[in-house]
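Project outcomes to date are best conveyed with an example. Our students and postdoctoral researchers have been running inverse folding experiments weekly, and each run begins with a structure described purely in tokens. The record below, which covers 911 residues, was selected by the lab manager from last quarter's runs and is presented without edits.
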């Protein structure tokens, strides 16, 4: 185990032969091997030849493939010539994809329309040989294309009639819960790492982390500052990942998934000579989102961990330096007079930006049975006891069969323990760090409140405090007055530090160059909505205002008004709703436990092909295999599949697909604006009356099992039997152990706030709503909605997502309140009238079976209000009871959820 900043050593970069060997190792197993039982070894050579590499697999490829298989599966008998007596299933005639995380949700594949399996291999080799422009690529570009993009091209072109199934063809017919791409990537990464380290024991993994996160992105006056900060942080992570991609290989990355990531796709466009015909159409459809988290994990030779960490940190900081120096140059040319002022400004940029980011890392080698004693000193026994028991069972089985195993140390079974050790080591390293930033002098930045506001004066040369203040004002007046600075770029008294200025002006220094990876992301930066623009969503709809310029002009006028009165010269009437917008935060629950394998609910039995399970339980003529596996199936301590690199990769890719095809599309559907979607972490700003539906749809997507993404990026949930067609077959997280489980779930915090409230404070409040109310008070798998009125006071509605009665009732109330003529709509005065009967309602709530009595009581009150239809009265009474009464608590009656529901429906016109 290692951690820290590393020593100053030099990493030796790989040459072209490294990439040739890597690709040959990657193709040790044919991409279409699962269609043949058993496959002909000559097929692998044919495929390597089609790829333009040596027909012979490298010497370490077989060993790496066996080692990778040891990480992915248990000990099973090999296939015999008839493909049956040894046990393995016939995937071509019985194609099934099992779920790698959930214990239910297997997907049957209908490939009855395809021709003979052998014809698929011929089509594959022809397709690979005909990739446009590939003859011009070097070995590295060829490998990058093969791992990152080839599956998309095969799926789009419907090669062999398999369509989107190319994304999920299994590596092993016995365990069709992970793809051949994941297995081959693991094998090639192991092969390269063994070559560099000299042995299997030198293979390990590293985690790198970049901080601070919220301290950088959440300090923002404008929504676009918040978004830009998220993009910059995502780009910093990408630069670290980019170093790994270019110096070890994309196959080494375990987390986050690189497949379909917008920055990776944009990077590949430039690597492959921009718009080469080889680029598939599907990837990178949402290029404007911050989708990389601040942490990444990859395979490496552990003896080179120090050198690699140093190189990654240098690479990340080099990009950051280029960015802040470009912003400095842009600023100094517009606000400084002479070289002396420029030098003074540069010194502040250097002081504030150069050492801002903290880079932490940890590395461990993969543990095995020989490391159990050391693991016991570092981790709780529960972290590795299952691996110990499985290793004993498999070892005994191998001994009975007199099989000499290459991987007798069973490192694969201890992957969860290795990963837990890696994460705990990183946490320990970060907690032991002391951040020593020199306190900033003078006037503080009006946005972050931490760093000194920028100026061009020389420190220590101030004649007076007034002179210092005037120098700052002169600097900012000059910058605001520059001819190419927009009128709304800075407010009249806005004085920023260099870090906040980088967030404000980053788009100005990257869009000049089409080759910059951020150019597409920032292309429409100036049209990014403000909080006022988002709050005016209903106003624009009511008045049929669709022009972007007209919307921005009206939003500026409304924002500039000192009070909430409507400015002159705009259409229609401004309602109360037109001053409020919603911040939506969502975060996966117990994701750390999921990626550690603690909450993986898939069992060995459900991960296997059903024919193998049946064979092991009933048809196997070999009692040794049968007894071993049935013992595993039935023992609570061994029956769960647990974590392995392939499952880890699948979780990473699932979270990527969730961000790209779930969150992004849903936020757009409901007219919101996504700030970031990094894996399970979501932030968006939304119109008030669409935000809850968006949150519910995102939650459903998070817990879906299998989805099909068509060529246009539209995602559809699929189950049962699915017939392949061009697009992408996506495997999502599913559910945890039990339908009401919080193991795999996502919580939401929805803050409805005034458009003029301090954005930094609102973001902070939204995080507290998510963390303290939805997660802590509700126990996760929950949603909390807070209506924060500018006039004072706060109202909250909260419940677990699985409380369907609550959320169905909440939706019914909002729908009824929003429908019909004004005279027939619900009035929030009903809620205030209900408060007068608090003592009576509390008494009824404490009675035996209070639901019926409460419904009758609420019906009697509603009949006196403006709702007339008897059926509506009955439904409404039951809905009000469901969200306002919680029997069995100290204060069982609370009208706050009703007021929140009514506000979402009609914008608080009366409240």
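After processing, the design step wrote out the following sequence:
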């Amino acid at each position: 185990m290692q951690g820290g900043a590393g020593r100053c050593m030099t990493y030796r970069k790989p040459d072209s032969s490294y990439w040739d060997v890597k690709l040959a190792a990657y193709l040790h197993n044919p991409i279409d091997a699962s269609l043949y039982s058993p496959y002909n070894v000559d097929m692998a050579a044919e495929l390597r030849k089609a790829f333009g590499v040596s027909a012979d697999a490298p010497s370490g490829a077989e060993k790496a493939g066996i080692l990778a298989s040891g990480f992915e599966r248990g000990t099973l008998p090999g296939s015999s010539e008839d493909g049956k007596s040894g046990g393995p299933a016939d995937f071509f005639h019985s194609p099934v994809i099992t779920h790698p995380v959930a214990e239910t949700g297997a997907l049957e594949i209908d490939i009855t329309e395809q021709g003979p399996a052998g014809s698929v291999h011929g089509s594959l080799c022809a397709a690979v040989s005909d990739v446009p422009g590939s003859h011009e690529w070097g070995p590295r570009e060829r490998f990058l294309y093969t791992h990152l993009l080839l599956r998309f091209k095969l799926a789009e072109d419907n090669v062999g009639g398999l369509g989107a199934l190319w994304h999920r063809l299994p590596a092993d017919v016995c365990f069709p819960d992970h793809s051949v791409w994941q297995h081959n990537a693991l094998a090639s990464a192991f092969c390269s790492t063994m070559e560099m380290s000299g042995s299997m024991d030198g293979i390990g993994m590293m985690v790198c982390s970049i901080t601070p996160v919220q301290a950088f992105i959440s300090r923002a006056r404008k929504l676009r500052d918040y978004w830009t900060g998220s993009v910059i942080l995502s780009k910093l992570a990408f630069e670290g990942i980019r170093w790994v991609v270019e110096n070890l290989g994309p196959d080494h990355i375990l987390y986050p998934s690189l497949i379909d990531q917008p920055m990776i796709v944009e990077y590949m466009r430039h690597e492959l000579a921009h718009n080469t015909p080889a680029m598939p159409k599907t990837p990178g459809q949402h290029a404007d989102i911050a989708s990389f988290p601040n942490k990444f994990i990859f395979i490496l030779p552990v003896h080179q961990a120090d050198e690699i960490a140093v190189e990654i940190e240098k690479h990340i900081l080099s990009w950051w330096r280029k960015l802040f120096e470009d912003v400095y140059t842009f600023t100094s040319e517009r606000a400084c007079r002479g070289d002396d002022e420029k030098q003074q400004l540069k010194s502040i940029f250097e002081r504030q930006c150069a050492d801002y980011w903290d880079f932490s890392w940890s590395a461990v080698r993969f543990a095995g049975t020989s490391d159990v004693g050391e693991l016991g000193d570092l981790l709780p026994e529960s972290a590795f006891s299952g691996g110990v028991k499985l290793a004993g069972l498999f070892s005994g089985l191998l001994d009975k069969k007199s099989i000499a195993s290459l991987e007798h140390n069973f490192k694969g079974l201890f992957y969860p323990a290795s990963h837990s050790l890696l994460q705990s080591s990183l946490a320990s390293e970060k907690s032991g760090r002391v951040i020593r930033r020199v306190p900033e002098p003078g006037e503080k930045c009006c946005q972050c409140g931490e760093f000194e506001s920028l100026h061009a004066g020389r420190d220590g040369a101030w004649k007076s405090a007034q002179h210092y203040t005037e120098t700052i004002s002169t600097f900012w007046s000059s910058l605001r007055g520059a001819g190419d600075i927009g009128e709304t770029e800075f407010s009249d008294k806005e004085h920023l530090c260099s870090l906040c200025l980088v967030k404000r002006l980053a788009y100005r220094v990257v869009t000049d160059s089409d080759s910059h990876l951020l150019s597409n992301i920032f292309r429409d930066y100036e049209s990014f909505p403000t909080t006022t623009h988002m709050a005016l969503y209903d106003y624009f709809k009511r008045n049929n205002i669709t022009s972007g310029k007209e919307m921005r002009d009206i939003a500026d006028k409304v924002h500039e008004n000192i009070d909430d009165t409507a400015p002159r010269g705009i259409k229609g009437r401004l309602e109360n709703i037109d001053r409020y917008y919603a911040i939506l935060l969502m975060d996966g629950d117990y994701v750390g436990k999921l990626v550690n394998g603690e909450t993986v609910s898939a069992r060995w039995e459900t991960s296997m092909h059903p024919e193998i399970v049946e064979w092991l339980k009933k048809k196997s003529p070999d009692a040794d295999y049968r007894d071993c596996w049935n013992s595993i199936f039935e023992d609570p301590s061994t029956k769960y599949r647990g974590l392995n690199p392939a499952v880890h990769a699948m979780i990473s890719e699932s979270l990527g697909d969730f961000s790209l095809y779930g969150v992004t599309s849903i936020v757009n559907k409901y007219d919101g604006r996504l700030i970031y979607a990094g894996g399970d972490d979501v932030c968006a700003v939304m119109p008030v009356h669409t935000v809850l539906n968006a949150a519910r749809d995102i939650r459903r997507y998070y817990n879906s099992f299998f989805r099909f993404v068509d060529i246009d990026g539209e995602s559809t949930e699929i189950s049962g039997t699915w017939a392949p067609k061009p697009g992408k077959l996506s495997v999502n997280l599913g559910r945890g152990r039990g339908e009401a489980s919080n193991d795999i779930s996502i919580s939401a915090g929805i803050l409805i706030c005034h458009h003029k409230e301090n954005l930094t404070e609102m973001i902070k409040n939204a995080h507290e709503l998510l963390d303290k109310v939805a997660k802590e008070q509700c126990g996760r798998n929950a949603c909390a909605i807070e209506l924060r009125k500018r006039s004072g006071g706060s109202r909250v509605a909260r419940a677990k997502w699985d409380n369907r009665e609550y959320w169905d009732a909440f939706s019914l109330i909002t729908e009824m309140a929003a429908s019909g003529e004004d005279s027939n709509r619900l009035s929030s005065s009903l809620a205030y009238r209900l408060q007068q009967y608090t003592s009576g309602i509390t008494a009824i709530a404490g009675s035996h079976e209070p639901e019926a009595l409460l419904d009758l009581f609420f019906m009697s009150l509603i009949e006196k209000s403006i709702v007339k239809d008897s059926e509506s009265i009955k439904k409404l009474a039951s809905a009000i009871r469901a969200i306002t009464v919680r029997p069995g608590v100290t204060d069982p009656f609370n009208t706050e959820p009703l007021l929140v529901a009514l506000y979402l429906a009609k914008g608080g016109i009366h409240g």
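The longest helix spans residues 305-335. The longest strand covers residues 580-589. The training component of this project remains on track.
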